[in-house]
Each structure stands twice: as structure tokens, then as C-alpha cells.
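Attaching the record inline, Q. Sequence:
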Amino acid sequence: MRIGLILLTLAYVLSQFFRAFLAVLTGELQQDLGVDAQDLAFASGLWFISFAAMQIPVGWALDTFGPRRTSSVLMVFGCGIGAAYFAFATSAMDINIAMTLIGIGCAPILMASFYIFAREFSAKQFATLAGLIVGVGTIGNLISSYPMALAVELVGWRVSMMVLSGVSIVIAIGLYFVVKDPAKAGASSTGSLLDILRMPVIWVILPIALVNYMPAAAVRGIWIGPYLRDVFGYDTAQVGIASLVMSIAMIGGVLLYGPLDRIFGTRKWVIVVGTALTLGCIGGLWAFPAASPIASIAMMAGLGFFGGTFPVIMAHGKAFFPAHLAGRGVTLMNLFSIGGVGLAQFATGQLHATTQGGAVSAPYSAVFGFLGLALAAGLAIYVFSKDNTQ
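Structure, as predicted:
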């Protein structure tokens, strides 16, 4: 099982890479294909929406076929073929198709790991293990920043994507032969996703799941690139370094949050405080979008650090799921989390396009303001949730 989890972690590194690498390619794709920030925001949104749309069938597949076949089959056909298709893209439509395929391929990776954690480890260990794999996996964010920018400068973005296609296929094949499926929950255990949706306690947690990852993922996934280019004149290498700083902060935040529920004896208030601090950072970007590049990068790093509450939110929701519905439960939570980012990318892309014409920073202030309002709304509902550290 240990070797399988290591390989799933490597696969999750790729998943994190694919959700964030477009920010670094903004200049090259604009020059080679004529796409703009709105096009790339839409393509990024398609990655998140296709990823989210797959969560319900992935949850069913995890409970029915297990994580071995579910993760390996989708990854080889989604990430492998999608990355290769991206390498030969000639238009914005090609980028959209490729990102959709890659999103489908990445969809089962983290949930396969969470499924194993939920079935093979104690409930009290879940948040720590989830935080660990998310934290290590966020190395993919690092690779998608300055290292990706360097690779693009050395061999070009097309060759880089072909290499990533090959790596994806190799890892997918390894998953098929190495990952071991947990034992079934029991033939007498029946139920469906509707049983989870009938639980009132979950409906107070789902809103924070919808918005918690939205600001950090939207900014790191696409907006950090156009924002620093347009407002401060950054080039590809400088954007790569700024993205690297934010990525390191995201790793640190996730690793910090993992054990906090056991240290403080609460999941709810760890999430509430972390979300409030995240709001402070996105609020600073909204209020002072053109103050200085150093201040903006620091606030984006803070956004990534304090916004790493995802593992604790997953643990909070999972604590209420019966064992035989663990796969469906965690994928439902992930659907809201990833789907929220996809919807945000669609909305912020349109918002950016419709607020042009004034100060160069105005469209980005509007983007940051939208993300902050969404996060505040989710937090306002979540404060009424029931705490659970079991």
C-alpha cells in the first residue's frame, strides 16, 4: 500500500501542475496562438469544470471498482492524450479540448488517495494524511512556476507538453500495477449519493467547500500571470519566480493546517480563522492592486498560505459519512471545491473583459473583489456548521 500511495502522490504532483501551468504560458500562447487572458481563464475553467463533473462517476467507480483501475485508466487516457493534444494546439479551441481531457484525467487522483485514507486509516489521522499528500503534491505548483518557465525558454512549450504526456502515461501504468484496493465495506452496506445529500449537516459545510479553494486556485492558476504582466510589466521569468513564491506558500499552508484539528481539538474554528485571514489577503489585493509588485506578491503568498484549509474541510465533511459511502462522500466535497474554481474562472474571465478601459489595474481589482465576496458568503454560512473531530 505504501508504494501505491507514493505513486498516487506523484500523480497528484502532476494534477497540481496541470491546474496551474497556464499562468506561466500566458505570453507564449498569446504570441504563438493569439489567445488572451480571457481565453486562458476559460480554458482553466474547463479544466476545473471537467474535473468537477467527473467527481460523481469517480466516487461511484471508487466504491465499485476501487482506486487502482479508476485512477490508472482515467489518467492514461485523460492526462496522457490531453497533454499530447495540447502540444499540437493551433487555436484557443484546441487548448480548451486539451484542458478538458487533462481535467478528466486528473479527476480521480486525489480522491483515490482519500478513499484509501478513509478505509485504511483512523478518522483522526485523515486530516493529517490529507494535508501531507496535498502539501507534497503541491510541488506540482512549484514545477509549473519558474521550472516550467525555464523549460519553455530552453525547449519550447510544445516539447515540454509532449514530455509531460509521456510522464503521465508512465505513472498511470505504474498505478495499475502497484496500487492495492482496500477491502470492500461489506455486501450488506447499501446506499447512494442521495443518502449523503439528505444529511442537513453537510449542506452547511458544502458552501465553504465551494469557495475555500477558489481564490488561491484562481489567482495561482491563471490571474497571477496576466496581473503581473499588465500592472507591473513582469516578463515570463519574473512571473515564474512570483508563482514559485506563491506555490511555496501554498505548500507551507497545507502542511501547517493538517494537524491543527488535533492540536486545537476543533476543525470548524481552524477553518473559520484561516478563511478570515485569507479574506484579509484578497481584500488587500482588491483595495491596493497597483501599490507595488512586492506587496502584491506578498498578499498572493498570504492568500495561498492561509487558504490551505482544504484538507481540514474534507476531514470535517468526511467525519459525517458512513464507511460504505466514503468514496461518494469525499468526491462530492471535491466536486464543490473544484467546481467552484471552474465557475470562478468563467466568471472572472468575463468580469476582466467587461471592466477594461479605465486604469490598467481596474479589471484585476474587480477579479479580486469577486473572489473575496464569494469567500465571505461561504464563510457566513459555514459559521453555523456543527463541529466534529471524530
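The chain has one domain: 2-180+191-382. Residues 318 and 330 are 6 Å apart (CA to CA).

More tomorrow.
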